[in-house]
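Amino acids appear as letters; backbone shape is given numerically. Here is one record.
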Amino acid sequence: MQNKITLIVDYINEVKTRCTFNAAAEALGITPQAFKKELGEARPEASWFVSPTSGEPMRYADSEKHPELYRTTRIITSGRVLKRNLDL
């Protein structure tokens, strides 16, 4: 499982696009809460994963957010996108 989580985190950082916790969890077949737990501590690489309602990373200080977090308004909201793009 950790390999797939690393794959998704690396992909999201490569495309520099926010992604909801729900979409990432759906792609992995786990709950959003389990995905949040697997991400671990707040850090810029994980700040791309956001709340589906606010589009913001949850419980992140500004210093913990990726500097390019708001470069686009696009947010991946479907696990199907990740499954397709990463062949999960």
About this structure: The helical segments are 2-15, 21-28, 32-39, 79-86. The first strand starts at residue 18 and ends at 20. The chain has a mean pLDDT of 94.
